[in-house]
Amino acid sequence: MFLFCLIVMETVRKNKVFLIDTLSTDASVVLQHVQSDSIITRRDYNNLNQPNHTQEKIIINLLDTVMNRGDETCQKFLKLLEKKELQENFPQLKKLFTPDQTSAERERGPDMPHVKKQSKGAEFVDRHRDTLIQRISSVMEIADRLLTKNMISTEMYSTVSAAATPQHKMRTLYGFLNSGAVKEEVYQILREKQPYLMKDLEG
User: Fold this and answer.
1) Is the same domain home to 14 and 69?
2) 21 and 65 together in one domain
3) Is the pLDDT score of 6 beyond 70?
4) Model pTM score
5) How far apart are the first and last CA of the chain?
């Protein structure tokens, strides 16, 4: 059961970029469905459905909310993505989210040849996620730089800062690394601020 829960969480995390690209075409429809299926509360709906937020921003915040709620919420969200009603609005979901799709196929992600290969730094940040979460103690140093460069919002920064431990802070920050450019910046910060750790990980 524990392994299944990890797979569910990892499926959402690994397909985050695909989901943002797909669902951002009509965030209001997505919010209506997730509230109707009790994946989020009415209060969540109001917090997410901000008129000054872009469609992409709304979906990013929704996915972060779902992942932060744990495996049960992630599982309900995956079930929603399989529903015919939602897939009629977002046909791209059929590439990955069907009832008979295997967990291995979902983890591999959709076939999207138009997506550019990630930079070396972004790949490094993805590959060493677990190690960096455990070993980075000065997380706010990274968050400060990202905030200065407008790569995370003040709200995101505050969420990271409020996390209780360095590991929790870093795990929270990872939830906001939504593009290759942001991950590349994190990589450059680590090379500057954590040279010994980077030397260890890069061999």
Assistant:
1) yes
2) yes
3) no
4) 0.49
5) 36
